[in-house]
């Protein structure tokens, strides 16, 4: 029981303190702690650093708590009862309050106030920076515990909250990566976790084994979330080691093949502890870029505490959450608590079965076991029954309770749901071990909200060890269940404890809507593209043979990924051909067919003004594409970025850009992301870029033939007619266009100069402008439709450019023969040969 007159608050790194004996009570933020000496940053004095004694300062959060306890005014500029905003609160603690105010700053302030015994509540329900807030004392500080009648049995239920920060953040993980980390624990991709150890040996000695123990335990528990009992998948692997494993992965050798090594296969967790300055490999950034799964860095260099948040969580997992409120956490070793909690949670899971016979004699049961239930589920159900009967010996337990609803007047019914346990006046209890229930969105809606009946109490019962990896999600479920619901966890004895509700942060709560995809903020600009704005292959005029090749060699295999899962195939696709023939448009049409988000990148998007920027920009773009499925990149004019490194006048920084591109192409290929490149000069590309395994599929895009040209010109004429800014157009029909183009194409074959798709578009635009000016030379509004004549179109085509030269055709056919075979090259060559008499 906390003394309402005195709250002891330990000063931690990041806390805001007040100088007690200086005029004006200036504030500072603790940046370092060594014994009783603190290094404090003064935000209002140009962030100057000052070393002070712990006795000379007091946490600012305690000053606010004293003001609320005395019900006095804290200051003239900050209201504690709803007149000030959250940004003003953050500013009082010395943090920035501009529009880029980090959520971590607000979280740091809230945690300090909670440790001082205060609850922060936005009056609008939103944690927006402009939202007003109210500070209230925790009930433990103002309401003494009621006296318990010795003749009355105590209520065997308690309530507890997850420690804040949660254990990954307490061990050095960035808070905005916490939800992503917990989700990755349930995934199949190999995880690489790095722990940067602090310099203090006494801290590192408990930190490293505790980190490894909790990480390995949480990972094995989380892997069962998506693993069914009949699965033949290999058991998850946990690798522990230090920096030599990183060196061995970057530079493998025959000597190290039989020793410990990193596992980059699915369902593997790699735990590497090292000191950032002395143990980290020089080319660590290359490893992080090439690692096929997620990477999480735990920066524990600033940790100087004793692991209190981790210890509190382990007490909850072991069934002793009440000890967290006593002054015992600082006296316990986190490493010993890991070992103890593993034993305690396992023993607690089997404890209730020992008293199952007594339960059967006290109450009749028609049915207990459901279909395909594990021993853990049965033990939880038995323990739940024991707990309910201890609260109400007369309770009627209805296991495997069937709910039915009347469908018609004849009385025919249909089973809707079946609940694990139903008790009158206590509601429904669903027992979930979280084994084989994933993914998390499915668990929320299929296991929880679809089974909850309105206006009836609902309780979710889970094993205690699920708090390790699903604690924030379970607290979020309790938040959504509201006052009529609870998440129950077994604790010591015959009791259950309810988990206090806490919603996930807004940018991490992707489970609220199962159809909403999670999107992390990217370090580069991410323009949104609607799928329906992307062209489909049917939207591309002409190029029938090219579209058929794309459908056969690219779209069909990608749409049948499950069928071809074990087939080795490169994810890189290379469009090549003369300029202006629609390569970029066809590349975007692939994204439209596969319904993927796409970025069309020009060479300037992968280059920077300074040395080394190119590698950074390439890495950032590939980071975007590998973050989520259903994303692809189109690298336009690839030859400008990936030209051959054998070129004698190539700068070393340009060679480094090519090297970085090779690394990222391999990374994207392992994750089966689609990378499309377009080029006019295939021979100028570096051989390592276009080798098999990187760009394994080649799509030659030739200039249009006569039939395709007719289709292209018709398309652009029809587009003029349906443009919103146009007043209409009367254009030649398809037959007239064919009659017009046929002699021109014969002449082109003789002269060996050909139209590109862009040449045809330019000719249509030129003829339209000439006809519009001839009919209405002065600008007026509301004119009639423009009559585009065959003669005007013929003049524009005759006088217009023919961008594809004979040299371009020879080079194109040579590259097609080399990369796509002689048969396709010979077929394409026939469209460029004279086919009849020249008119």
UniProtKB/TrEMBL annotation:
The keyword Nucleotide-binding applies. One of its GO terms (molecular function) is ATP binding. Gene3D superfamilies: P-loop containing nucleotide triphosphate hydrolases. PROSITE patterns: AAA. Residues 503-535 are annotated as: Disordered. Residues 569-705 form the AAA+ ATPase domain. It holds the Pfam family AAA. InterPro entries: AAA+_ATPase, AAA_ATPase_domain, ATPase_AAA_core, ATPase_AAA_CS, P-loop_NTPase. The keyword ATP-binding applies. Signal peptide: none annotated. It comes from the Bacteria. Keywords: ATP-binding, Nucleotide-binding. Belongs to the AAA ATPase family. This is ATP-binding protein. The lineage of its organism: Bacteria, Pseudomonadati, Myxococcota, Myxococcia, Myxococcales.
């Amino acid at each position: 029981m906390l003394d309402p007159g005195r709250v002891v608050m330990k000063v931690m790194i990041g806390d805001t303190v007040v100088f007690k004996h200086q005029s004006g009570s200036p504030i500072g933020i603790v940046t370092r702690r060594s014994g009783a000496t603190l290094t404090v940053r003064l935000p209002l004095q140009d962030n100057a650093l000052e070393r002070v004694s712990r006795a000379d300062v007091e946490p600012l959060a305690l000053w606010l708590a004293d003001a609320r306890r005395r019900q006095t005014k804290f200051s003239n500029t900050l209201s504690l009862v709803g007149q000030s905003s959250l940004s003003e609160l953050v500013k009082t603690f010395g943090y920035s309050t501009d529009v880029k105010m980090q959520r971590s700053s607000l979280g740091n302030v809230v945690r300090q106030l909670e440790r001082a015994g205060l609850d922060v509540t936005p009056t609008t329900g939103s944690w927006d920076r402009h939202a007003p807030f109210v500070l209230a004392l925790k009930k433990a500080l103002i309401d003494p515990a009621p006296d318990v009648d010795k003749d009355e049995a105590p209520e065997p239920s308690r309530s507890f909250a997850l420690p804040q920060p949660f254990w990954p953040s307490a061990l050095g993980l960035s808070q905005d990566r916490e939800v992503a980390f917990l989700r990755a624990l349930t995934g199949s991709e190999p995880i690489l976790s790095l722990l940067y150890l602090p310099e203090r040996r006494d801290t590192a000695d408990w930190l490293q084994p505790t980190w490894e123990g909790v990480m390995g335990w949480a990972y094995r528990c989380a892997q069962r979330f998506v693993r069914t009992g009949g699965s033949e998948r290999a058991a998850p692997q946990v690798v522990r080691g230090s920096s030599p494993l990183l060196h061995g992965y970057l530079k493998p050798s025959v000597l190290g093949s039989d020793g410990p090594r990193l596992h980059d296969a699915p369902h593997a967790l790699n735990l590497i502890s090292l000191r950032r300055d002395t143990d980290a490999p020089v080319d660590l950034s290359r490893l992080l870029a090439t690692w096929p799964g997620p990477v999480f860095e735990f920066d524990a260099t600033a940790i100087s505490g004793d692991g209190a948040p981790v210890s509190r969580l382990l007490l909850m997992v072991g069934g002793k959450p009440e000890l967290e409120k006593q002054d015992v956490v600082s006296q316990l070793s986190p490493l010993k608590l890991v070992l103890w909690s593993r034993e305690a949670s396992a023993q607690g899971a089997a404890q209730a079965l020992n008293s199952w016979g007594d339960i059967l004699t006290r109450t009749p049961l028609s049915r207990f076991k459901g279909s395909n239930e594990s021993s853990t589920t049965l033990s939880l159900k038995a323990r739940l029954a024991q707990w309910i009967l201890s609260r109400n010996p007369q309770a009627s337990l209805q296991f495997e309770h069937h709910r039915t609803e009347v469908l018609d007047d004849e009385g025919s019914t249909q089973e809707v749901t079946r609940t694990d346990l139903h008790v009158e006046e206590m509601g429904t209890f669903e027992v979930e071990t979280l084994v084989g229930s994933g993914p998390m969105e499915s668990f929320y809606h299929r296991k929880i909200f679809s089974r909850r009946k309105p206006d009836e109490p609902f309780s979710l019962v889970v094993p205690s060890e699920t708090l390790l990896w699903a604690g924030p999600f379970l607290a979020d479920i309790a938040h959504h269940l509201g006052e009529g619901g609870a998440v129950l966890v077994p604790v010591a004895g015959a009791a259950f404890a309810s988990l206090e509700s806490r919603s996930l942060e807004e940018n991490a709560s992707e489970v609220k809507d199962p159809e909403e995809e999670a999107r992390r903020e990217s370090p580069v600009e991410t323009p949104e593209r609607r799928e329906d704005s992307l062209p489909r292959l049917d939207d591309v005029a002409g190029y029938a043979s090219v579209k058929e090749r794309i459908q056969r060699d690219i779209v069909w295999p990608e749409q049948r990924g499950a069928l071809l899962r074990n087939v080795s195939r490169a994810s890189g696709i290379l469009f090549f051909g003369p300029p202006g023939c629609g390569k970029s448009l066809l590349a975007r049409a692939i994204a439209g067919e596969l319904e993927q988000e796409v970025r069309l990148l020009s060479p300037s998007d992968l280059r920077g003004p300074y040395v080394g920027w190119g590698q950074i920009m390439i890495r950032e773009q590939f980071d975007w594409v590998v973050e989520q499925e259903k994303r692809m990149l189109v690298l336009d004019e690839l030859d400008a970025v990936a030209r051959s490194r054998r070129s004698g006048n190539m700068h070393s920084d340009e060679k480094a850009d090519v090297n970085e591109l090779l690394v990222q192409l391999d990374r994207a290929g392992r994750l089966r992301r689609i990378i499309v490149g377009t080029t006019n000069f295939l021979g100028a590309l570096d051989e390592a870029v276009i080798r098999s395994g990187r760009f394994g599929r080649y799509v030659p895009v030739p200039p249009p033939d006569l039939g395709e040209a007719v289709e292209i010109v018709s398309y652009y004429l029809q587009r003029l007619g349906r443009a919103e800014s146009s007043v209409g157009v009367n254009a030649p029909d398809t037959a007239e266009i064919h009659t017009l183009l046929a002699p021109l194409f014969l002449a082109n074959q003789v002269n060996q100069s050909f139209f590109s798709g862009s040449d045809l578009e330019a000719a249509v635009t030129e003829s339209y402008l000439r006809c519009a000016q001839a009919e209405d030379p002065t600008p007026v509004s509301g004119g009639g439709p423009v009559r585009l004549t065959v003669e005007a179109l013929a003049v524009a085509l005759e006088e217009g450019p023919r961008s594809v030269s004979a040299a371009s055709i020879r080079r194109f056919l040579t590259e097609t023969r080399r990369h796509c075979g002689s048969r396709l090259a010979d077929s394409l060559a026939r469209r460029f040969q004279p086919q009849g008499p020249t008119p």
